[in-house]
Write a structure and sequence with these properties.
With 245 residues, this protein is α+β, with helices and mostly antiparallel strands. The protein has a single domain, classed as PPM-type phosphatase domain (Phosphatase 2c, domain 1, 4-Layer Sandwich), CATH 3.60.40.10. 32% of the residues lie in helices and 29% in strands. The strands form two sheets. A five-stranded antiparallel beta sheet has the order 1-10-9-6-7. A five-stranded antiparallel beta sheet has the order 2-3-4-5-8, with helices on one face. Helix 1 runs antiparallel to helix 2. It is globular. The relative contact order is 0.21.
Length: 245
């Protein structure tokens, strides 16, 4: 028996938070092309905003305005390379932007298949049957030490190095993304977010909010509100994508 075709719906929201003077997060989405992206910029002055905006723009252009001639994971890696080159070149030409970069988490969907892509510590999750699973692995110093068994989760939360990321777009001439291939089912709910959300909210709190019977727009608002109420120490961005029969 042939599998039913899966359609997707999406919504996103970004917020400056309660402590930052500006918003250096950016997102892009195209339900038509099955492309969803969240970036969290970093750098002095407005450099982080430049980096995240550049990354989203390059990725969206690469994945929505060109004919796809390669399998999606290869296209995704090429799009990341194009975004990395655009940011790195801009920083090399403009000394005030030197050292800027951005994290990236992206989702590409094609019927019942999906690919999650990440660089840095912006995260991708999937809620299936009311259970939340983190798909991406943070490219951060403390998370890598946790995976090696050299640090506990509790120690990581207290570590002065918890903000140090080990991979980002634009800080080097080349970068390698992680790409995870998934099969989707009707009812799956994907969350892409900057660390401003998950630094404030535990996975169990995020899971409880995603279980609520709300529209995607309402769910995005509830997530951002909860992160702000918990402190809002950073910019907050969440992008939700639901698979529907």
């Amino acid at each position: 028996m042939a599998s039913a075709v899966v359609h997707y719906a999406a919504s996103a929201l970004t917020d400056r938070g309660r402590k930052r003077a500006s918003n250096e997060d950016a997102f892009g989405l195209s339900v038509e092309h099955g492309v969803y992206i969240v970036c969290d910029g970093m750098g002095g002055a407005a450099a982080g905003e430049v980096a995240s905006t550049l990354a989203v723009g390059e990725m969206m252009q690469w994945l929505t305005q060109r004919p796809r001639t390669s399998p999606p994971p290869i296209e995704a890696a090429e799009a990341v390379n194009a975004a990395n080159e655009a940011i790195y070149s801009r920083s090399q030409r403009n000394p005030s932007l030197n050292g800027m970069g951005t994290t990236l988490v992206a989702l590409l969907v094609e019927d019942r298949r999906a690919w999650m892509v990440n660089v840095g510590d912006s995260r991708g999750y999937r809620l299936r049957n009311s259970n939340l699973e983190q798909i991406t692995l943070d490219h951060s110093l403390v998370e890598e030490q946790i995976r090696l068994g050299q640090m506990s989760q509790e120690e990581a939360l207290r570590s002065p190095l918890k903000n140090v990321i080990t991979r980002a777009l634009g800080t080097q001439s080349a970068v390698t993304p992680d790409i995870f291939e998934l099969e989707t089912e009707p009812g799956d709910l994907f969350l892409l977010c900057s660390d401003g959300l998950v630094r404030e909210l535990s996975d169990s709190v995020v899971e409880s909010l995603l279980r609520l019977d709300l529209t995607l727009e309402e769910m995005c608002s509830r997530l951002v509100e909860a992160a702000n109420e918990a402190g809002g120490h950073d910019n907050i961005t969440c992008l939700l994508v639901r698979a529907e029969a």
